[in-house]
Design goal:
two-stranded antiparallel sheet, 47% helix, 280 residues, alpha/beta, 9 helices, single chain, Rossmann fold, seven-stranded mixed sheet
Length: 280
């Protein structure tokens, strides 16, 4: 086991780990047999997951990978899927999710489920790059063929990865989710290094920077929207209590039967009556 040079006709050779290269060749065989494929690359900020994703995409696309094969979120991916040819590669680089709220994460997962249906019809290869594996739901882990985790060594040198195959990845997700996002068990099938590789040049770096700023602005809008809805809810509760003389217990019952229940103490605080329900 070691590094090899992956040769692509009329394209720069890429130094790559031999076992991981074999896994990518298996994916190409599966695709030729009429199947789609998906795998996940996770890792901390700036640990190299985007670099490894582009390297894998470059090999899987026979050096045809361009900016059009990379999306910064689910919405952009859906718009690009329509124009990408069958049996092509799509990388969803969700590095921007390190800044995202829970609402944004839920929305992105719904988008990913839609995307998986489309890539199945088009026999495509999907590479998902994101900060934390355990932010995903169980179905996405099940659909992935394998999982790669990028990391830095004890001297903070980037360019390391671990590989969990189809059996171990499911155990990793179940056990790790119960242990605060731990990647300790089971051990990876193998681990090695990858080299810095960016055939897309400056254009990709500009797209990545743009996606990070876009994520920040998007979450800022969501936060402002949530604050507005909270104020509207509180105004309605105060109107019901003070103007319509509706009892606090009745108001509490309305919200307990909804998707967004409120505790008694929250109702009291909004109505300005301290910490105890007052219904006289």
């Amino acid at each position: 086991m070691g590094m090899i040079y992956a040769l692509i006709t009329d394209k720069p050779a890429i130094q790559f780990h031999d076992l991981l290269y074999q896994k990518l060749m298996n994916i190409k065989k599966i695709q030729k047999a009429g199947w789609d494929c998906c795998f996940i690359i996770c890792g901390d900020e700036r640990s190299g997951k985007s670099t490894l994703g582009i390297s894998c995409g470059w090999i899987l696309s026979d050096g045809k990978l361009t900016i059009n094969n990379i999306a910064s979120d689910g919405q952009e991916a859906i718009s690009k899927l329509e124009s990408l040819p069958d049996e092509s590669v799509l990388i969803i680089d969700e590095g921007s999710l390190m800044f995202s709220s829970k609402d944004t994460m839920k929305r992105e997962q719904r988008q990913l489920l839609k995307i998986l249906n489309i890539i199945g019809q088009k026999r495509m290869i999907l590479i998902i790059c994101l900060p934390d594996l355990f932010d995903l739901n169980k179905y996405l882990i099940h659909r992935a063929r394998f999982i790669l985790k990028t990391y830095a060594d004890k001297n903070l040198k980037r360019g390391r990865f671990m590989y969990w195959g189809s059996n171990r990845k499911n155990i990793l997700f179940e056990v790790g989710k119960r242990h605060f996002g731990s990647y300790a068990y089971p051990k990876s099938n193998f681990k090695s290094i990858f080299k810095d590789f960016n055939p897309l040049g400056e254009e990709y770096l500009k797209v990545k920077e743009k996606s990070l700023w876009s994520a920040l602005k998007s979450d800022e809008k969501i936060s402002r929207s949530d604050d507005k809805r909270t104020k509207q809810r509180n105004a309605l509760i105060n109107y019901l209590y003070k103007e319509k003389k509706m009892k606090q217990t009745a108001i509490s019952k309305v919200f307990s039967d909804s998707k967004y229940p409120l505790t008694n103490s929250e109702i009291c605080r909004i109505c300005g009556t301290g910490a105890k329900i007052i219904d006289n």
